[in-house]
Fold this protein.
Amino acid sequence: MAEKICLNDIVYVSDGRIRRADIVVEGELISQITDKEEIDQAQLIAYLDERGEETSVVLPGVIDDHVHSREPGLTHKGDLASETHAAAAGGVTSIMDMPNVVPQTTSLEALAERQAMGKAHAFVNYAFHFGATNSNAHLLPQLDATRVPAVKLFMGSSTGGMLVDHGDALRAVFERSPLPIMVHCEDSAIIAENMRLAKERYGDDPDVVHHAEIRSREACIASSTLAVKLARETGARLHIAHVTTKEELDFVTKTPSPLPLKGESDYPSRADNNSLQNIPPSPFRGSGEGVCTLEACLPHLLFCDDDYASLGTRIKCNPSVKTAADREALREALNDGRIAVVATDHAPHLLTEKQGGCARAASGMPMVQFSLVAMLQLADEGVLSLPRLVELMCHNPARLFAIEGRGFIREGMKADLALVCRKPWTLTAADVVSRCAWSPLEGRSFNWRVSQTYCNGRLIYDKGAFANDNEHACALTFSAER
């Protein structure tokens, strides 16, 4: 049983504001918040520099909607326990796991088995996306909307071979899914032709510097265009995963942030938000005419194709990282409403599996442990503000999937918290918790570090030490009315 915890005279970020306060946690819930004063980001940095590195800022626990834990079937490089320990070390308190494991999560039986695995092994809160195939659209109406966040659809070949490439089957997924459809968009025919040409020019395993030519922007744009068309025709709720090109950003319009940085009237009062069921209305819910939201992932916000020369296959992922101009466009879209959420596409592989080039080396990289500190670094560099970071990594994932009771620091909400401090450091392989034991960010320096992580009111990570069991971890639940 979690004990009463008093976080006195701390600074927290939630609901578009940075505030000094006292916070009391009782059991699994935030029971009391006593606000003292509101400060801005510059005042916060000055305050932290004055108080020293032991002073922490409290953020809502990060919710990562795009994680590959590798369990079952691929556990030599990661499993639910190892990868959710890595998540906890990074201030991530909830993950949504992908279906391209072995066996794939494409049947109701496989889904139930994975949910049981989550209860047994996950160290943070968890949920599992259901995978669409060419032949299982009839199962989608049977999914429990309170336990499954989304249907994952691969409209392009990627790790796991779950491509849905039959026109009728693709439309059936959009027509029958009662849940958001989270889509990996790459056109397989374009990629296959690009690979054929690359092999003719460069040999059977083209150097990774050609990865963005093979997994090209045209492949992404063509597939995303089709997905948007299907969503509009069927009224489906479309969530495009890991967008990589500036052209794809044009599928949604620039809109004001659903959580403006100022204006108390834009937020429900605390008195109206002391129930776990009383989450803010989602600005992402469908209107019967289809709605499209976009996810940006860390690799495409941090790297560009120029980095292949120094990092090689460590940054090989699908979709590929694109140009520096694309990266800058994605960063700009973090602030104007086009990007709804930031996730990781955490995909651990052993370094031995990353050997080779475009044809042989595995695609994907481990990111979940360092996503928060990397985004905080971007905030220090002026790419986005701290409140906007919290919106993209905590508030909006909770809204988009209608997660009950999480994603905000409010009275009555679950006490999922990440405490971060200002402590410059340089990442080495020794810092990596993931079973794969490496990071593409090795050698990078950061100004922030995760000092503590609370999950459902329990301190589960404390300066390198972990809780000794997973009794605190819970299955995520979602509003049935989403």
